[in-house]
Amino acid sequence: MDQKDFKTRLRIAKKDILKRTSDENDSKRGLFMGSAFRLGTELVAAVVVGTIIGFILDNWFGTKPWFIIAFFFLGVIAGMLNVIRVAKNMQEKK
Amino acid sequence: MAANPMHQFQVYRLGPEIKLGNIDLSFTNASLFMLISALTICLFLFFGSKQKNIIPGRLQLIAEMFYNFISKMISDTAGSKAKPYFPFIFTLFMFVLLCNMIGMLPYSFTVTSHIIVTLVMALFIFIAVTVIGFLKHGFKYLSIFVPKGVPVVLLPLITIIEIISYLSRPVSLSVRLFANMMAGHTMLKVFGSFVISLGLLGGWLPLTFSVALTGLEILVAFLQAYVFAILTCIYLNDALNLHH
Hints:
The complex is a heterodimer. By secondary structure, chain A is an all-alpha fold. Chain A has one domain. Chain A is built from two helices and no strands. The longest helix of chain A is centred in the middle third of the chain and has 59 residues, at 3-61. Chain A is rod-shaped, with a radius of gyration of 26 Å. Chain B is an all-alpha fold. Chain B has one domain (7-240). Helix content of chain B is 68%, strand content 2%. Chain B has helices spanning 29-48, 58-77, 86-103, 115-137, 155-202, 204-240; strands at 19-20, 23-24. In chain B, helix 4 (115-137) packs parallel to helix 6. Chain B is globular and about 70 Å long.
């Protein structure tokens, strides 16, 4: 087998591998899109849940508006924590 | 006629009124489309798995593709311990997917654009996962609220934050699906009414948008079903493999 023949075969094989990895990237893009959809609601949901818990506690103890304020901020922190976790998860998968 | 874009989400009764005490159990258009989705899945999987050819036909190929897709997703995200929950997650995925996709057909009704439907599914998942966690680990399951390596001073605060984060799961799970479906369908209707009101001269631009949006909505319909299923897997993973 001469060298020229080998070189063309190598080029074809390389192209094949490149194509295969780009196919894999396409399927991963869908995965990331799923994670991206998660991020927004994850932040909002925790804030809403925190505020609702604060509202309920305020009604129980009659301490309006202190629990609502405290739990609103705790909810914000929880939401950010959730977002950071999802983002970390995305980076690990990369 | 300016059609109300929210009119498509109206639930109305079909047939006679059925009441059980104070609960209205009448058959509505929402129940009808849930039934259609469920029947479509059953028929599709029945005919898809009827002929067990080595070289699969079209229907068998699609059915096997779905099976492999979910099976791979579960083993990737939740490990081998989650295998017994495959039927549940597969059913959930197919149901949400079919509800979303049938909602894309003209004149149909999108069941998943109602928060009560998605919230019930999310709450069921939430309660089931919590029960599974307690059954598998006993009271040690509560340790997911106490992350490792946190200073003692911060521990009460972090625990409260973790509990809020845990309780926000069903909310985010249900609101995501409901909001995406409702927003998409409202937008389609709004652009559709633009086409009518702008008429033959200016209607072409919103028509182009409508076509593009329909493509996007089909993507969203699939993606939301996928996200719903994969999040169930992730929550199951937290309950089965306790490690953070």
